[in-house]
Amino acid sequence: MMATIPATLARNRMRKLPSGRYAVVAIVAILVLSPLLLIAYQSALNGPFFAESSRLDSGAWQYVLGARQFWRAFGTSAVVATGMVGIGVPFGAVLAFIMVRTDIPGRRILEPAVLIPIFLSPIVTAFGYVVAIGPVGFISLWVKSIVGSVPWNVYGLPSLIVIAALTHVPHTYLYVSTALRSVNPELEEAARTLGAPPWRVALDISLPLVRPALLFSASLTFLLGFELFGLPLVLGDPAGLLVLTTYLFKLTTLLGVPSYQMMAVVALSIVVVTLPLVIIQRHLLGQASRFATIRGRGLALRPLKLGRWRWVALTIVMAWLLLTVAVPLAGILLRSVVKGWGEGVSLSRVLTLDHFRGLADYPNLIRGIVNTIALGVIGGAVSVACYLVVGLTQHRWASRGVAVLDFMVLIPRAIPGLVGGLAFLWLILFIPALRPLRDSMIAVWMAYSTVWLAYGLRLISTALLQVGPELEEAAQTAGASPMRVRWEITIPLVRLGLIGSWLLIFMMFVREYSTGVYLFGAGTEVIGSLIVSLWGAGGLDLIAALSVVSVAIVSVALATALRLGVRLHD
Amino acid sequence: MTDQTPILTIESVEKSFGTTAVLQGVSVTLHEGEVVALLGASGSGKTTLLRVAGGLERPDAGRITIGSSVVFDASSAVDIPAEGRNLGFVFQSYALWPHMTVAANVGYGLRLRGASAADREARVLAVLERLGLGALGNRYPHQLSGGQQQRVALARAVVYEPPIVLLDEPLSNLDANLREEARAWLRELIVTLRLSALFVTHDQVEALAIADRVVLLNRGIVEQVGTPESLYGDPKSLFAATFLGSNNVFLVMLDPTSKQADGTAMVSCGPHRIRSTLQSNSGATPASTAAIRVERVSVNPDLNVGPDWTSLSLQLRTSLYMGERWEHVFDLNGHAFRAWGTRRLEPGRHSVHLPVEGVWVF
Ligand SMILES: Nc1ncnc2c1ncn2[C@@H]1O[C@H](COP(=O)(O)OP(=O)(O)O)[C@@H](O)[C@H]1O
Ligand SMILES: [Mg+2]
Known about the structure:
The structure holds two protein chains of two kinds. By secondary structure, chain A is mainly α. Chain A is built from 28 helices and no strands. Chain A has two domains: 70-242 and 302-336, MetI-like (MetI-like fold, Orthogonal Bundle); 350-570, MetI-like (MetI-like fold, Orthogonal Bundle). Helices cover 74% and strands 0% of the residues of chain A. The radius of gyration of chain A is 25 Å and the shape is globular. Chain A starts with 6 loop residues before the first helix and ends in a 7-residue tail after the last helix. By secondary structure, chain B is of the alpha+beta class. Chain B folds into two domains: 6-238, Rossmann fold, CATH 3.40.50; 246-361, CATH 2.40.50.140. Chain B has helices at 46-54, 102-112, 117-130, 146-158, 176-192, 204-210, 228-233, 238-243, and strands spanning 6-17, 20-31, 35-40, 61-66, 69-73, 78-79, 88-90, 164-168, 196-201, 213-218, 221-226, 247-254, 264-269, 272-278, 287-293, 309-321, 326-332, 335-341, 349-355, 360-361. Chain B has a six-stranded mixed beta sheet, sandwiched between helices. A five-stranded antiparallel beta sheet of chain B has the order 2-1-4-5-6, with helices on one face. In chain B, strands 12-13-14-20-15 form a five-stranded mixed beta barrel. The radius of gyration of chain B is 25 Å and the shape is elongated. The chains are: A mainly alpha, B alpha+beta. The interface between A and B is medium-sized, with 23 and 27 residues. Adenosine-5'-diphosphate (ADP) binds at residues 17, 22, 40, 42-48 of chain B. Magnesium ion (MG) is lined by residues 46-47 of chain B.
């Protein structure tokens, strides 16, 4: 007996999905490319892109490339990025080795703790450093009361480099620790049986084996160094130190008039540095799998015994956590509950909750908090849904479309949030149909979603990769259309991964600030952008209270994520 | 050939992973210049024992001595780490470092021992040549065949002349035909390099062929220790008997009164009465198990059967042609009973002869 395939089934399988997939690729391409192209176009004009009188002109390029201040900012960015690589990558590698490969005490608690800096808003961290170790910070004054002077200066290049390096250690840690976990422990044991002590095992075997991950971390840290905004705004600006992003941010003030074409040139000059880095990283990521050797038949990892050195290792990790997490957090927490601070002030006299009450006096601050949470919860959920659609488009699709999509997703990674936000603002001004979105949270959400596209998509595809192909094929052979397979098999199977992605995206959206700087208007403020504008106006009391609120929101999300067993990294 | 100085002594070692006891009081001695095989089924704890000896796994109890120094003693908290034991260890996966050349892999142990670059180069070259890898020093491990990788792993473990080499299933990753060659090669190499070697295998032929002595491990307990001949020819337990070779195993009733001073006794299997040798059986319990190696069963009608033989008349069920021999399957009291012969047999009943020293009762 011959069975006939129902015509609808056959058609579904053959046609419907690919055309939908190409539509997704096209939408992503438009979303990703149009801001970049608009900036490029604007940089080649002699006036605002929306002005009738604007003509093609290379004047802006000539002006910016001839400006000494631009080159000084460029040089500072390069020095900061290089310093971050020089300090942060070796430290991150050592941290990863200690955490993954040794019997350091308290690893269960330390493992999530070392990731905390990733979830803290840099603007909040920077502010925390100012109130803790700034000229009149709590710790500074305490040290001064003992030794007579403050032996450091939180403003300026050296402290900017050190703080940026320390707060970016988790990025190296993440990639190196993942790579170390995939190294066959027998490769290390072989060295030990030949007589190598633990530190030789690390230097001769483990770290060389994860060299691609180290190179990747170095290029990522360098990239993040160029995109740095909050830290240099708070720690560099008062010392007259500008990096490329703060130079861009200050350009209007510096020039006295808003100059679209100059901003476009500066924005593009950042992307010129970051885009090649992102492409290099993609190449390195491909290499990283070369050395990854299969772990010995599912045996548990056998940590290296450090003996007496475990306490040294613990001290190193704790000192870093103290400096990178405890100091700034303690700073803002304390600052948020005191009226003022100075030499000889006793804590009990100045304790107050007024700053938190003060938040209520400013409708825009309350709105900012509400907007931040809504953006994280609702916007985050919608973003995850969008990332899921893109992820499913790539999922088990053997087509050139995947390569195109892969490349498209890279581009936002090369665009600093500040530039991304600016580009979206311009896009809204440029396209009449989008104008109603101006001063709406939708515009902010679109910018956030695009800037975090690569991150979100990696979360989604990690989850999708866990689904065994035979589970989907079983449904397909039973006659389910590709759409139904996705809806009834794939998505339910990655449910937990989606919830985890939502939580992580929520935290990223709460932490994000630079993307919102230009999109921020009456009614669309978020905590991060409020802090940036308050910083300009010197509202320390309110900044402290807002920072605590922001940290509290992220803490709740982080605690929930840990409770649910969400993997904080892949 | 081997003198009797112990160079590695493992005493009553115990090791559990969580609630599973993997080693339950294992004792093994390796003498200078001796090759000892640890033989056991998969999961019997062989690798764990080797790792314990190498310092890669910490036992829960017991004592380990290398040469004259105690490297582990649970009672006095001595625990020399792996890097302090000066052993050679060959991993089952070879564990060659992919980021180093063959020469760098092999020379690493010398580098750790502070050998000069020239000395190192010469010794690496010498050992590579000895193992037939002379020209491959500049290659990377992934550019080598499985057999070559295995020899590099061996070279890396012996280049600094450790007193003891521990090998975990050294031949198991080789193709079947390569493995047969490698047996002779490995045995010859260990002997000419005058190594003392403890090697793990689940392959009985490998253990019998390469080792001077075999330690049979059964679920974390040493079942029997002895020369390959004694283990094969005089197993002390049913497990040892059936782990090696091809066997006929059948249930018998022992006649306690028939027990002789030379350790022989009569057993019955259905209507058949068979003269047999008591192995680990005191003769007290009548219900017992008997085993005989298939190659000791004779179907040769011209055999000159003496008083030490039992002849049974059994029905032939079927015959299988195996190439170099025939396998005949008879019916012994309702169970299959195998014998090997050189000729095809006609259907019907045949005389099957069993030597008394070949029928073991446990
Ligand atoms: N690190 C470990 N953790 C938990 N169980 C283990 C570990 N190593 C070995 N085992 C268990 O111990 C038993 C013996 O393992 P192993 O020594 O590798 O046996 P063999 O080498 O004889 O095959 C197995 O059941 C294995 O699952
Ligand atoms: Mg094993």
